[in-house]
Amino acid sequence: MDRTNAPPSAETPNSQEGTSPLVLLKPVERDLQQLDENLKRLISEENPMLMAAADQIFGASGKKIRPALVFLVSHATAQLTGLSEITPQHRKLAEIIEMIHTASLIHDDVLDDSDKRRGKETVNRVFGTRVAVLAGDFIFAQTSWLLANLENLEVIKLISQVIKDFASGEIKQTTSLYDCDITMQDYLRKSYCKTASLVAASAKGAAIFSGTSNEVKENMYDYGKKLGLAFQIVDDILDFTRSSEQLGKPAGSDLRKGNVTAPVIYALEKQPALKRLIQTEFINPEDLDTAIELVHQSGGIERARELARNMGDSALDCLSCLQKGPMRSSLEGMVDYVLERLH
């Protein structure tokens, strides 16, 4: 979808303000407020031990982009099927998606022994590893119960696959550290498992509960998949282009840990010396800085940017089945927001 020549309108955000999270999420602001209250109540009522950690736990996931996506697609697809408002199943799906995402972040921080996420102290840093592991396990268990109570086999299978993908993605990443033979296909599959699978399921699940056609369901799934992949590619680019202060973690930290991402895969095609630095796990103090410089010199970052833009364009194409309006406009703006992080 080419929107470069589209006239300015309320339906097509075309400024930095228009693609800011606050503006994009405005149409579902009340939905998100209700979701936040429900999640904190659910955690504290079910397990008082976690009451004190509730704010820290659900603050870890940031801007609530994933449940917002559920609500936006829910409203947009409900318009197609004549629903006057979204259903309780839509709302419960948004809660489940946010809980899965939050639990995965908590476990990721434990595995990585991270002290901070987006500049804030992690749950394991504040409450200890034991509480963090138990909190993540408890939230995953709760999502399984909530998912079963949706009583929709198609959605249950869809979300269960996401949880399986998370585990598969972590295994793929762990077993491919410092592996310079990883292909772009390998990288995209790992990125799908770790990031895009949940986003794709969020969008498709919302369409399922709206009762849309199979074509719309698959378009929403593809939208989420491409948006999720674009997000991960951009995230991996920022590891090389943002400062430690901007990232909330040391710049180049993903490469230091041995994660071979899109910019590195492209760089390896042009810079043979990079392979030696990675395979020796940056044994000398200056090796990491040298490797980062080689990635910059190779053109790998720009090629990765182009890959992210292509994913974004593909995501936009999937939205043509929706009616024009604030919901579709925000879904389009989500793509712009992800890609604007490149600048």
Kindly describe this structure.
- This is Solanesyl diphosphate synthase.
- A hairpin with a 2-residue loop joins strand 1 (116-117) and strand 2 (120-121).
- Residues 1-18 have low confidence and may be disordered.
- The chain is built from 17 helices and two strands.
- It has helices at 21-24, 29-46, 54-59, 65-81, 88-112, 123-127, 129-148, 153-175, 184-210, 214-241, 244-247, 253-256, 262-270, 272-279, 287-298, 300-317, 326-340, and strands at residues 116-117, 120-121.
- Helix 5 (88-112) packs antiparallel against helix 9 (184-210), helix 8 packs antiparallel against helix 9 and helix 13 packs across helix 16 (300-317).
> Whole-number average pLDDT?
88
Which parts are unreliable, with pLDDT below 50 for 5 consecutive residues or more? 1-18
> What structural category characterises the helix and strand content?
mainly alpha
The coarse overall form would be globular
Distance between the termini: 21 Å
Helix % is over 70%
Query: Beta-strand percentage?
Result: under 5%
C-alpha Rg (nearest Å): 20 Å
**Number of helix segments?**
17
**Could you give a short account of the major beta sheet?**
2 strands, antiparallel
Tally of strands: 2
Could you give the order of strands across the largest sheet?
A: 1-2
GO biological process, one term: isoprenoid biosynthetic process
Region (Disordered): 1-21
Cofactor: Mg(2+)
Keywords: Isoprene biosynthesis, Magnesium, Metal-binding, Transferase
